[in-house]
Amino acid sequence: MTTAAQPTQQQYAVGSLVHARGREWVVLPDSTPELLVLRPLGGADDDVAGILPALEQVVPATFAPPTPSDLGDQQAAGLLRTALRIGFRSGAGPFRSLASVSVDPRPYQLVPLMMALRQDTVRLLIADDVGIGKTVEAGLIAAELLAQGDARGLVVLCSPALAEQWRAELYGKFGVDARLVLPSTIGRLLRETPYGQSVFRPDGAYVVSTDFIKSPRHREDFLKNCPDLVIVDEAHSCVADTAIGASARTSQQRYSLLRALADQADRHLLLVTATPHSGKEEPFRRLLGLLDDRLATVSFDTEAGRRLLAEYFVQRRRADIRDDFGDGAHFPSSRDTAESPYTLHRDYKKLLDEVLAYARETVRAADGALQQRQRWWSTLALLRTLSSSPAAAVQSLNTRAGVEEADCPEEADRTGERTVSDPADSEGAESADAVPGTRLPAAAEAADGPDGTSEHEDTAEDDEEKARLIAMAEAARKLEGPTRDTKLKKLIATVTDLLDEGYRPIVFCRYIATADYVARHLAKVLNKKGTEHPVAVASVTGELSPDQRVTRIAELTGADEDGNPPAERRVLVATDCLSEGVNLQESFDAVVHYDLAWNPTRHEQREGRVDRFGQRTDVVKALTLYGADNPVDGIVLNVLLRKHERIRRVTGISVPVPQESESAMQAVFEGLILRGEKTAYEQEGLFPQEEAAAAEQLEIAWQSSAEREKRNRSRYAQHRIKKDEVAAEVAEVRAALGTGEEVRDFTRRALTALRGMPAPTKQGGFTVHTDALPLGLRDAISAALGPRHPRPVVFHDAPSAPRGEAALTRTDPVVAATARFVLDAALDDADKIPQWQRPARRCGVVRTKAVDRRTTLLLVRHRFRLHLPTRDGSVREQLAEDARVVAFRGSATAPEWLPEDEALALLDARAAQNTDPNFAAGRISEILAALPTVLMPELRVHSADLGKKLEASHHRVRTASRARLAGLKVVPQGDPDVLGVYHYLPAPTIPQGADA
Fold it and tell me: What is the pLDDT of residue 555?
């Protein structure tokens, strides 16, 4: 009885080894005498288990030294070392998450992380430029908070169109396996959830549609069970400055949801957007107020106000971070932009003049302010759709105008701006690509008498107007095709040139009808009979659901069902539903603006889909088509786009359009429509006096905004963070975990030894045939990629890989499975596994020219207990591991220890001749005999020194981030494990020639 009860009273220290269930385990924090929380030795966090010593036998264990007969070649040490380090998911360095993060953050991407570590409750607005890595920055903060235990769970609120992308980024780059909560998944999630419980758990990870979860049906349950870390993507869409209407109600519901989340004082909140300021101050202040109530009212003209803002706000432009990409990283060196004019066909010009005349007549003849504004917006919609394409114009002429429901002129203006213009503070572009209608109720329909009967005095005029609209629609229909549509003809020539130069373009259109029209004609012309190089063409518009958009793009850019590679010559035609958030840089490298956006920010967003971190093409292209004799295009170019580009080039700052832009555009369009001053717009600078004054005031306000932002940004506190010093700490941590080159080399060599036959690819990776791999590894790869994954398996030399393929990063499931197999095979009983399945061995004796005296290399695993101060003043205990190599010259009984760099150099030593196995086993036995008495004391000293070094690194990072230091300690736990012993002997000099 006493013997049976004894294990329940055994105290096991954190980091100690125990034997249970036929294997060795490491004791983790949170263990108690009654319940041991254990991780298999060399295992991952997914393998953690709880064991009750009262019910199962648990005994202390020690790590077994190598067997002298387990001899390998010169590659054995490097393979075993890398396999061990790839398996680490809890590094001992100051950034706890880096062991589970597959990306190598650039120095500037560490600045938001350092800002977050300064705060007790993390509240940040990350507003970096499009394409420079806001997702990575937010992911780094989330991963670190989760790894340190400062956050229990995570939720990302985003558009449903971006949900799958966010889920893939979290899993592929940060090792966070999040569940999708969307209208299409909620049914299954509810069925999987026990009755009476919530789909959400405070310690879970989720990617959630903002618009889905804001509905009253789900809102309260979400708020009650929401995790303590929330990331809000495209946060600007939650604070639009509109007073009434459906868009305003949606924005208010989003804001109300975020306000409720922010009101919980201990909730971490990360707001992410490339456009925090739409040019209007109120939405920007409401956004900042979610982080700290003081930011909603404080003056940023004072030093105190700017300092307060700098604690919560980080924004960098491309010019700020360009120097961080001087080492060959995938980031375009420049963006080649150009305007590409065309001249309207005479029939197209004739119809445009007729539409302008119609617009002038109908607006002037309006009865009252409301009808005037309704007619203004309906005719402006017709002008814009006709400038886009004949197909869009035909659809507009056959669609009722959205402004017809307005009850007052102000409401008509709000509706018109939302449906016809591109206001920066409207809802996202995702749902804004429908063609706006032109048709308004006939006068007879609108003029009902007090008794409910209609008056028919204007019937003849109404019939005449209907006939006129029908005739314009028929005329527009006849313009379809490249013969009369010179804009389409210009696009075909432009796309052909881009394809011939090796580019893969995206053509952005304003309307669904235009995108479908353009895609149809491009596919026909570029693939006409006899074409030597066919071109794959696809269109993606708001008509498709988010899942269908992802599928459509994958069909264009991915391998087909038979595993055939995608077409090299391809064109994607899209509306602005793809202009925000979606990453397309891996498959496309040029943008054509087929339609001019009425907001320069939209052009930045479009070009940011390809000009971003991860783009392999050094110079991306952006071409803007416009009608040289189209007055509508002339207004947009001269009033908005060219001024925006001029200010950006002069000041280096890309700022949103000021609020004055709306009045300026109104004034210029009024000159075109009401006074017929169209010839003045064919040349820049020939505006009439009234319109010129409005445009001038816009430019002055714009320039002032740019100078103010440039001045304020130079004073932000994040510029005082020494990012290069922090980057050095990160580089040291990453080196201890295995560099990217080391991981790539390990994967290729290990799979070669395991009969995978790697074959190089043009992109720098390789392919591997899995059929001949060991069964256990083959099953692990199928589990990671899916049973129907493409064969051979493609390994990409990139941070991420398409579905069913692998990335050469330490956290990729296939790479991790390979490392786990190599490590387990090396540590298991050699008699149980075929020798070819054990590419790494724990011992080796190598005769080499790399040494002139006998030298021994030891592969050692250290364990440390980390005592980390937390934000609430307590100290959290965590367990971490670290693998190092140490080396000494001479005999094991009188070692001369070498510096670390000389020890590492031995990993590259190559054998000059074979060594007799019996001799080699004898040498290893001599070294192992000295391990307990001579070598282990020195290894304990190494552990203590490494612990001090790690503690100093923690101290430096915490000092830089102004985090708490009281209680910080890094303490070695137990004796280090000796995983490998490798002995190097000088290669004898062999006499040559007659003296041999």
Answer: 87
Over pLDDT 90: what percentage of the chain? Answer: 35
At residue 608, the pLDDT reads: 86
Provide φ and ψ at 607, rounded to 5°: -65, -25
The token pair at 913 is: 């001749």
Cβ neighbors of 479 (< 8 A, separation 6 or more) are 345, 347, 348, 351, 390, 485
Of 66, 70, 78, 60, the residue nearest 10 (C-alpha): 60
Structure tokens at 218: 């789900």
Element (H, E) at 182: none
Query: Using N-to-C axis directions, what is the helix angle for 740-753 and 813-827, rounded to 10°?
Result: 60
DSSP collapsed to 3 states, 325-394: HCCCCCCCCEEEEEEEEECCCHHHHHHHHHHHHHHHHHHHCCCCHHHHHHHHHHHHHHHHHHHHCHHHHH
- Token readout for 351 is 């119809």
Q: Does residue 712 have a pLDDT over 70? A: no
Residue that is written with structure tokens 């209208």 in the block: 183
- Cα–Cα distance measured from residue 9 to residue 98, given in angstroms and rounded to the nearest whole number: 37
Residue 391 vs residues 337, 342, 397, 604: alpha-carbon distances, Å:
28, 19, 10, 26
Tokens representing 4? 């049976």
Distance CA 771, CA 630 (A): 62
Q: How far from chain centre, in Å, is Cα 700?
A: 36
* Beta strands at 619-627 and 590-593: parallel, antiparallel or unpaired: parallel
Q: Do the beta carbons of residue 437 and residue 393 sit within 8 Å? A: no
At residue 767, the 3 state secondary structure works out as strand
Which residues lie closer than 8 Å to 341 by C-beta, 6 or more apart?
Answer: 625, 626, 627, 628
Rounded to the nearest angstrom, the gap between the alpha carbon of residue 335 and the centroid of all alpha carbons in its chain is: 21
Report which of 850, 950, 761, 726 is spatially closest to residue 107, judged by C-alpha positions: 726
Placement of tokens 């908005």 in the chain: 640
User: Taking the CB of residue 711, how many other CB atoms lie within 10 A of it?
Assistant: 11
Q: If we measure between CA atoms, which residue out of 255, 171, 253, 156 comes closest to residue 208?
A: 156
* Summary mean pLDDT of the chain: 83
**Which of 236, 232, 293, 221 is closest to 268 using CA atoms?**
232
d(CA 929, CA 906): 22
* Residue showing tokens 């004034």: 667
Half-sphere exposure of 653 (CA within 13 A, CB side): 18
Give the pLDDT band of residue 259 (cuts 50, 70, 90): very high
Is pLDDT of 752 > 70?
Answer: yes
CA distance 644 to 603: 11
pLDDT at 651: 63
Distance CA 821, CA 733 (A): 24
Question: Helix or strand or coil: residue 421?
Answer: coil
pLDDT score of 7 more than 50? no
b/e sequence 313-335, b meaning 16+ C-beta within 10 Å: bbbbbbebbeebbeeeebbbeee
Measure the CA–CA gap between 709 and 279, rounded to whole angstroms: 12
Q: What is the pLDDT of residues 472-489, one digit of tens each?
A: 999 999 999 999 999 999
Cβ atoms within 10 Å, residue 165? 19
Q: Tell me the C-alpha distance between 758 and 768, whole Å.
A: 5
Q: Kindly tell me if the per-residue pLDDT of 46 is higher than 80.
A: no
Pairing of strands 205-209, 179-181: parallel
The terminus-to-terminus CA distance of the chain in angstroms comes to 75
Determine contact, residues 314/111, Cβ cutoff 8 Å.
yes
DSSP H helices in 509-564: 512-526, 546-557
106-121 burial string, b = 16+ CB within 10 Å, else e?
bbbbbbbbbbbbebee
Listing from the earlier edge strand, what are the strands of the sheet with 17-20? 49-51, 36-40, 23-27, 17-20, 59-60
| Both tokens assigned to 711 | 């001045």
Q: Which residue has the tokens 């114009």?
A: 393
